[in-house]
Amino acid sequence: MDGAAIGRAQHFIGNRWVPAAGGQTLDVLDPSDGAPFARIARGEATDVDAAVAAARRAYGAHGEGAWGRTSAVERGRFLMRLAQRVLECEEELARLESRCTGKPLKQGRADARALARYFEYYAGAADKLHGQTLPYTPGMTVLTLREPHGVTGHIIPWNYPMQIFGRSVGAALAAGNACVVKPAEDACLSLLRVAEMAAEAGLPEGALNIVTGFGHEAGAALAAHGGIDHISFTGSPVTGTAVAQAAARHHCPVTLELGGKSPQLVFADAALDEVVPVVVNAIVQNAGQTCSAGSRLLVERAVYEPLLERVGAAIAALRVGPALADLDVGPLIRRSQLQRVWDYLSQAQADGIEVVAAGSVVDSAPQEGFYQAPTLLRDVPRGHRIAQEEIFGPVLAALPFDGEDEALAIANGTPFGLVAGVWTQDGARQMRLARNLRCGQVFINNYGAGGGIELPFGGVKSSGYGREKGFEALLGFTTLKTIAIRHG
Ligand code: NAI
Ligand code: MG
Question: Which residues, 6 or more positions from 78, have their beta carbon under 8 angstroms from its beta carbon?
Fold first, then answer.
């Protein structure tokens, strides 16, 4: 593991390591054993000021800075070099990610490869982003320019630091913005290392800056900063509201990705053998700490019992243990998250909700780690907190339904709308549901928690607004200028 990234406890600003202006640091805990193993800089407003100033110099007041002047093709080439570097360092990055987040090493490796894929995708897209010419009155030509916002802010959560950095910073850089990133205090070492690689790959000073620290300090300072031209935030609805309010004071556009309570709708004609592994993976991947986790299992009554039996057997077989032991499931991110899941489960127990099955924590898992066995609950009343709120842990709530209308009503009946999975062989039903589900992505006879670099992703309702991933994200990282020329 890279000692430099672990021991440095500094921000990365203007291609240099910089200590926090106030000299303060924070411990980073390893969720697998609960012990501190690294320190990071505890950034505050002064540090954010320095990072925004560096980004502004790189972009310029109107794109005349070193990065602002870099051509689209050169931005693409830089991202391609960075993708290559990430792939060469997959193992190092995977270990940093797994150590900080607790995710099994295979997931850390998948995340490193996904990061490289985001950079590749946006490398290829950088020089394909362009405006249009518009019909207007005779004697005039009108055209539109897709311009970068300028300096973009990126507030990143701890569940998938590399993937969320890739989709947001990759697209922002491709579009020509200079970036200031505030990663989560729990998990940021991989991103500091990637920023260092970006400098090595030739990124101009200040085009990418990382300020570490607490959300209520560094994060809040970034959201409120008048020098930021766009903010993208992934995390909880409560924090998303605070970020959007702070940004609104200086009329800064915001993209919010706030998680969900995503349903899987399984009809009686579905191929149950195919359903089971996908449904299980969609809730246990990353120990359920995935914005797009499939956390509700809605099953047509005719196959409710047989499906629960099979899903229950698969969940009971899951083994939970330290990240580097690379089992099926790792620990949760921190003790407060474990407590949050316990609170939901004890509420379920108090309300008489039945546990169908639970996985097991291996004996060798350290006592002080933040382990939670994956758990399947059945007959959860549709209005119950367990069926309505994002738990962000490996807890799957099963509910039976009778017919398509009821399935749709339950599926749409939460404050969220991020992803849905529909399992049926009936083509007309697939299409009806795909159109009627209120969410940002619908998967038919599959489910894509986490993946899909090319596929636009984002929510409706309390799941947020704006789209990341795919080409659509590039549009979000630009602003459109219309130029109307009268030439007679
Ligand atoms: P959070 O939303 O508070 O943190 C996400 C990011 O926002 C972190 O980088 C954090 O430092 C930053 N942040 C926190 N407060 C801020 C503020 N006032 N201004 C600006 N930035 C701020 O999430 P937290 O507290 O870590 O987790 C609580 C719950 O949020 C989880 O149980 C889960 O339900 C949800 N969550 C959802 C995620 C998703 O992918 N949709 C990711 C992380 C958390
Ligand atoms: Mg928080």
Answer: 70, 123, 173, 198, 201, 202, 203
The question of whether 257 is a catalytic residue gets the answer yes
CB of 417 closer than 6 A to ligand 1?
no
Phi, psi of 401 (to 5 degrees): -140, 160
Substitution site in 42, 158, 239 for ligand 1 pocket (most atoms within 8 Å of beta carbon): 239
pLDDT tens-digit series, residues 243-277? 999 999 999 999 999 999 999 999 999 999 999 99
Q: How far apart are CA 468 and CA 456, in angstroms?
A: 6
SS3 16: strand
Which residues are CB-neighbours of 417 under 8 A, at least 6 positions away? Answer: 260, 437, 438, 439, 440, 459, 460, 461, 462, 463
In this structure, the strands spanning 133-134 and 140-148 are antiparallel
Q: Single out the residue of 147, 144, 145, 146 nearest to residue 134, CA to CA.
A: 144
pLDDT tens-place string over residues 410-432: 999 999 999 999 999 999 999 99
CA 54 to chain centre: 26
Measured in Å, residue 238 CA sits from the centre of ligand 1 at 8
CA-based torsion, 226, 49, 9, 166: positive or negative: positive
Strands ordered across the beta sheet of 464-465: 16-18, 11-13, 208-210, 178-182, 151-155, 230-234, 254-257, 464-465
Cβ of residue 259 lying under 6 Å from some atom of ligand 1: yes
Output the DSSP codes for 133-170: EE--STTEEEEEEEEE-SEEEEE--SSSHHHHHHHHHH
Catalytic residue selected from 89, 252, 291, 439: 291
Is the Cβ–Cβ distance between 397 and 308 less than 8 Å?
A: no
Cα(239) to centroid(ligand 2), Å: 6
Burial label for 37, CB within 10 Å (0-12, 13-18, 19+), is middle
Tell me the one-letter amino acid at 75.
R
